[in-house]
Structures are given as C-alpha cells and as structure tokens.
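Case study 2.
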Amino acid sequence: MNNLLYSVEDKPPFALSLLLAAQHLLAALGGIIAVPLVIGNVLKLPTPDTITLVNAALLISGVVTIIQCRGLGPIGIRLPSVMGTSFTFVAAALAIGFSESGAAGILGASLVGSLVMIIGSFFMPYIRKLFPPVVTGTVVMMIGLSLIPVAVDWFAGGQRNDPQYADPNNLLMATFVLVIVIALVQWGKGIFSAAAIVIGMMAGYIACLLLGWVNFEGVHNAQLFAVPQPLHFGLEFPLSGIIGMSIAYLVTIVESSGNFLALGNATKTEISGKHLRGGVLCDGLGSALAALMSTTPFSSFSQNIGVISLTGVASRYVVSLTGVLLVLAGLFPVFGALIVSIPLPVLGGAGLMMFAMIIAAGIQMLDNIERSKRNGLIIAISVGCGLAVTTRPELLDKLPHFVKEVLGSGITLGSLLALILNLILPQDKVGPNETEVKKAA
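Prediction:
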C-alpha cells in the first residue's frame, strides 16, 4: 500500500514546498558544516580559511542536491536525495592535512580520488545484483542503527564529555519536540502531518528562545554575503594521500548504494542499476567539483531518508528546493548561522524519530524475506559487527590505518559483511515437506 502524501513526481504548492524543503535543510545543515568545521579546527586553519570551507560546502551541496534530484543527462538518481560533506573522508583528510601538503593536498587527493567513484558508477548495474532483499534490508536497518548514537547525543545536548550532557532540562526539551512530532505524524492532517518535523522544531526553538537557550554569537559574527573562491587553497597531489582518499571513495560507493536502496524503499521506487549509476556518478562528479571549489568530498545524506519515511513527502521537487536553500546559505552565511543556532536537544527530539523510522523501514523489508537459518546468520552477523564498531570505535584503534579506514564505519562494515555472507553461504536446502508447507502458506 502506498502511504505517501506526495510521491516522487508530485509538486506541492510553492509555499508548502518551501516549508517542506526547510524541513530537509534543518535535518542536513548541521552535518554539512560539521566536516569542514572539524577539518578546519583540527588543522588549526585561520578562521577565514575555515569559513571558506564551510561556505563552499553549503553552496556545492546545494548545486549537487539539485542535480541529484532533477538529473542532468546521465547524472543524478532523480529521487529526493540531499547531498553533503561526508565524515568518511575525515580520517584521510586529516592525515594529508598534517603532512607538508596541507589543505592543498587534501583537495588535490580528493580530486584525483573522485575518479574511483566516477569510474565505479558505470559498474553499478552489476553491483545492484549483489543486493537481494536480505542484503538491502540489513543495510537499511544498519544505516538507521548507526545514526541513533548521533540522535542520542543531540537529545542529551552535546558530546558525552560536555558538563551539560544529559541534563534533565535538555532531555525535557528534546522529549517536548519528540512528542509534538509524534502527535502531528499520527493525528495531524495535510500540512501538519507533512511538516511535522519542522513544526516540532519551530515549537522547540521558540521554547528555547523564551528560556534564553539560543546563542546568537555565530549569527552576529557571520558575514552577510560571501562568494566561495575556486582553488582558494591550490591543489597538490601527494601519492599516499591519493591512495587514502581512493579507499575512502570505495567505502563511499558502498554507503551511497545502501542509502539509495533505502531511499528507494522510502519513496516506493524500485531502484535499478541505472538509478545507482546516476546517483553514484553524481556523487563522484560532485566531489570533484567540491575539490575545485575548495571544500571536502560529498555523499548522500541518510538522515534525510528518515524525513521522507516519517512525513510521507517523497517529492524530488521539494528536495530540489532544499538545494536552492543550501545555495543561498552558502552565499549568505548569516542564514546558515541562524539555522545552526538551533539548540541540539531540539534537533535530537526530531532526529531520534527520523533515524528510528529508517530502522523500522529495514525491519519491514526483512519481514518479507524467507525465515531461514542462512538469512538469520546474514542479518545477525552483519548487524552485530556493524554495531560493534559504531558503539565502540576504539575496537579498531590498534589495527593498521588501512583496516581502520575501511572498516571504521558501521554502515560500511555491516554492508560488506552482508554482501560477502550472501555470496559465500550456501542456500538452505528445502525438503519436500517444507516445500509443501510453504505452498500451503
């Protein structure tokens, strides 16, 4: 049964589309600026250079999101996919950044490494065959499970070492937002159901304003208008950095494939090899453009799949409008700073619901597969090992850097294990009696 309020090709009225697009913007903006902020702060780049990284990330995220949604020839999946900077590349980027090459080496290695994704995109029709329902459902569920710790930290108000972490006031505010979102999704009609997330977050933001929780320092310090500068840092091409970035791009192909399959489930779209080829090609070309425009590589954002699952709004035109808002945020940094001023518990209340919906989607997909010992092993091992590195990333600290780079993401490890186990585990033998039972069922 199709329970979408707006399907992929639907075009809601402009005012409603703008509200729904803002919903996706709120879900993605923190993640998009987090990577350039981390890289800029850890490498101790001058403030103007870090601002350049952030502005370019927002602007190019918007451009690539628009292309991903609407398509440009063979480029783009033509589904509602928000694109943004990816944490998969942070370890490789910092390793290069601390070398003599610095930021120029990061961007040069990223530019060359993007060829891995661009070339790999043409093999996606073959790769699609490696994703039967047992693998797809496991990957989708693993995406949601990997995002839950992020939502929990938002819910608690920061990182575990923060003094205000899990302060009862933070938990109450996050719960307040969560309850509003649940109530609107369950009982709201029309716009109130479709825009449940943004309405819940607006209510939380207003409550935070009244309590004096909102810090406007970033808004006051932000530039009103700024144009990102191409090749601001220059380009250098360290061989070791290119290898590290290429590995990260291989990992991203697996993650993006999982995200696109989850997106297909959320939008009621059958994902073909052609879809995957267009989506991954857009990822690769977008990352190459990002390097030329002085920011870090991109991938699809899984958190926005949760927005679609929760609200039932799958219109690619709405998410194209999110791309327009991201471009404006890149050109007008004060706009982005205002969004970033939203307190973390407000994000946490909505985020916990969004990411949990992705888990539910994965469980529903797995509910349709045959209940067998083989499928049970694939799911159990993949999810167990994926959660192991998600909840205890230090598990890999004493292993070689290459291993940590490849297996450090729970989504990647879970996806790879599901793929490998599906290929090597023998199919369950079905006896005559079992066949009769299945036919009767």
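Residues 3 and 312 are 7 Å apart (CA to CA).
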